[in-house]
Amino acid sequence: MSKITIAIDAMGGDFGPEVIVPSVIDYLKANADTRIILVGDSFTIKPLIPNPQIHLVDVVHCDLSISMDAKPSQALRQKSPSSLHLIIDLLSKKEADAALSAGNTGALMAVSKQKLGMIEGITRPLICGVVPSVDGHSYLLDMGANVDCDAKQLLEFALIGTLVANALDGKVSPSVALLNNGEEEIKGNSQVKQAAELLTAHRHINYIGFIEGHNLYQAVADIIVCDGFVGNVALKASEGVANFILDIFNREFKNKPYLFPLFWILSKTMHSIGKQIDPRYLNGASFLGVNGVVVKSHGHADSLAFTQSIIYTKRMIESGIVEKLQHLSQYDE
Amino acid sequence: MSKITIAIDAMGGDFGPEVIVPSVIDYLKANADTRIILVGDSFTIKPLIPNPQIHLVDVVHCDLSISMDAKPSQALRQKSPSSLHLIIDLLSKKEADAALSAGNTGALMAVSKQKLGMIEGITRPLICGVVPSVDGHSYLLDMGANVDCDAKQLLEFALIGTLVANALDGKVSPSVALLNNGEEEIKGNSQVKQAAELLTAHRHINYIGFIEGHNLYQAVADIIVCDGFVGNVALKASEGVANFILDIFNREFKNKPYLFPLFWILSKTMHSIGKQIDPRYLNGASFLGVNGVVVKSHGHADSLAFTQSIIYTKRMIESGIVEKLQHLSQYDE
Q1: Which of these ranges, A59-73, B107-121, B198-212, has the smallest mean pLDDT?
Q2: Among B214, B249, B276, whose Cβ lies nearest the Cβ of A237?
Q3: ipTM of the complex
Q4: B239 to chain A, closest Cα gap in Å
Q5: Which of B73, B127, B245 to mutate to test the interface with A (most CBs of A within 10 A)?
Q6: I want to staple B39 with a disulfide (CB 3.0 to 4.6 A). Which of A102, B83, B161, B201 is the partner?
Q7: Cα-Cα-Cα-Cα dihedral of A8, A13, A19, A24, to 10°?
Q8: Where are the beta strands (DSSP E) in chain A?
Q9: Are A129 and A121 in contact (CB under 8 A)?
Q10: Is it the case that residue B280 has pLDDT exceeding 50?
């Protein structure tokens, strides 16, 4: 039986091969059951692989990479493939079981949709992320692929999320909540209120009601559904405040020399905290709805975080989520 | 010349008089130039005022208070006034220069609108908050009063925010940004894209473009405009992650006894951080558009935070913002 194979874009994200190559090597040293095809500029990649591990990874050379600010339409139009195009290509030809990139999200989504096609019955692809809490996590969808959603799209997100929680975590009847500006029934904009009615009526969805922004990090529901615009802003705002807290924390230390000896101990504590809260450690957002497993790592992932995204990608493959989503229509109300 | 007078609802918020009364007394001890009328159950209020300070504050008795989960329509329908009704009443009769409550936001908004009426030219009242950053702050509007906004309403928020930054901070041409799911021009839902065109074209608005959720805490613009649904979710998500970080931090200490001696020093550091980041210390959201200064304190404000909201209310009075907003129409494009 052939190994699980992941095609990885070595050039994506803020740091490219410098972060991704060590991450891949670390992963492979611990996981001999996975094959990784690393796509990108081999002249940059190969020197980053220590000699003893050179045999562990397959490198496919590609001259081109897509910049972080290129428009999706440029990615679709370009004639020569970039590393991002090639990993999707490998997936579409079934030479890989999944594609993983830290690169341009819009381009990755556009190319995935174009080359892999949509799973029948799913209108538009979405991005599903994992939001941490002290004792668990929630799947949040959509994280930004779809804006101006109507209630029916939110219903679709709820169904897809239900299948994800079932496939990844084995949950039989995962709870679904709608992200809202209040808990009470009267709260919400027209889209969310209509979606609440659809979710309540649907017999395959365990809808538990509205949750508010501050509940995101409390795992009060297995799945949290929202419009992509709202999801994107909420998550980025959370990221922003977490960084703000850390900036102030660091500044406090600079201003208080007597705290320096504590800094070492504190940074270990902060590191431990970071493991539990930061998107780096729950790194990996999946593109759901396209006909293949595509995972997007956070653009500024460090090596540790990128390794998490490889682990997450493997779990997505093993969950059989794409095959399960192909049966989505049997869950129609 | 009579003193500035603030009518305060003693019964609002999660803690009521227990937090509000000490807060008011502390404020009055430091600010002899302000008169405070404290409205609520005098049998609960008066015992909380130390004898030497009993003369500092005027207490108006009221039997009723509105619960935190009462619907705004209930507040409008009830025959006997609650403490929340009475502070707005005092403001409408000009027996106070402002009304401040930590209570039910929806009820406060409904009663304010009903008794004070709208400033001419402003379609709907909005809630304007202050978002902190390392070196400054931004005004965020709308924080939740208006959902399903159209582009014209976002334009109105931008104009109102401009007048606020001018009145409170003396800024001549304060910068305005739209909260979006990306910086690039192509990003955004239809509402935000249309609003961008209106703001760009308006000669009295210094529109600087889109900002993303993580820019909220970086004071990249003096005023940040968004739909109330999005603003509410983004701020609550930020609150949620800040609390999540603190929860994990506390848990780390419980698990590591060798850190206990550090805890005292750390809690002072955290306190100092808290002063700079937490809504408690920039506590106070103003209801703009109604014909009077109405400020809402955060429901779970402690005494220190509530004192901040009193200070903020006084600044709002001194800024003359209501009079300035009455001239909003002269800024029409």
Answers
A1: A59-73
A2: B214
A3: 0.88
A4: 6
A5: B245
A6: B83
A7: -10
A8: 4-9, 34-40, 58-61, 98-101, 126-132, 137-141, 175-179, 206-211, 223-225, 285-288, 293-296
A9: no
A10: no
Backbone angles phi, psi at B14, to 5 degrees: -75, -25
Cα–Cα separations (whole angstroms), residue B101 to A32, B44, B145: 62, 17, 16
Distance CA A283, CA B208 (A): 32
Contacts of A186 in chain B (CB under 8 A): 71
Q: What is the pLDDT of residue A176?
A: 98
- With CB atoms and an 8 Å threshold, state whether B214 touches A240: yes
Cα angle A93, A323, A179 (rounded to 5 degrees) comes to 115
CA distance A309 to A232: 19
Contacting residues of B for A214, CB less than 8 Å apart: 236-237, 239-240, 243
> According to the model, what pLDDT value does residue B77 have?
87
Which of B147, B266, B281, B300 has the most A C-beta neighbours within 10 Å, making it the best mutation to test the interface with A?
Answer: B147
Give the CA distances from residue A98 to residues A13, A93, A101, A143, B45, in Å, rounded to whole numbers and listed in that order: 18, 11, 10, 20, 65
| First-residue to last-residue Cα distance in chain B | 39
Q: What is the pLDDT of residue B276?
A: 54
Helix (H, G, I), strand (E, B) or coil at B182: coil
| A242–chain B nearest CA distance, Å | 7
Which chain A residue is nearest to residue B238, measuring alpha carbons?
A: A238
Distance from CA of B208 to the nearest CA of A (A): 18
Least confident of A152-156, B79-83, B153-157, B260-264: B260-264
Q: Report pLDDT digits (tens) over B2-61.
A: 799 999 999 999 899 999 999 999 999 999 899 999 999 999 999 999 999 999 999 999
Residue A55 sits at φ, ψ, to 5 deg, of -80, -10
CA distance A187 to chain B (A): 9
Peptide bond into A69 cis (omega under 30): no
Nearest beta carbon to residue A148 from set B189, B239, B242: B189
Higher pLDDT, B110 or A333: B110
B265, B40, B312: which is closest to B168 by C-alpha? B312
Min Cα distance B105 → chain A (Å) is 11
Rounded distance between C-alpha atoms, residue A210 and residue A183, angstroms? 5
Residue B105 has pLDDT above 60, yes or no: yes
pLDDT (tens digit per residue) in B238-271: 888 888 877 777 777 777 777 666 666 666 666 5
Q: Is B31 helix (H, G, I), strand (E, B) or coil?
A: coil
Between chains, do A269 and B277 touch, taking CB under 8 Å as contact? no
Contact A213 B234 (CB under 8 A): yes
Mean pLDDT, residues A50-61 taken together: 93
* Adjacent-strand bridge partners of B126: B288
Best to test chain B binding among A126, A214, A250 (most B CBs inside 10 Å) = A214
pLDDT at A280: 45
**Tokens 């900002």 — which residue?**
B211
Contact A181, A212 (CB under 8 A): yes
What token pair was written down for B49? Answer: 């005022």
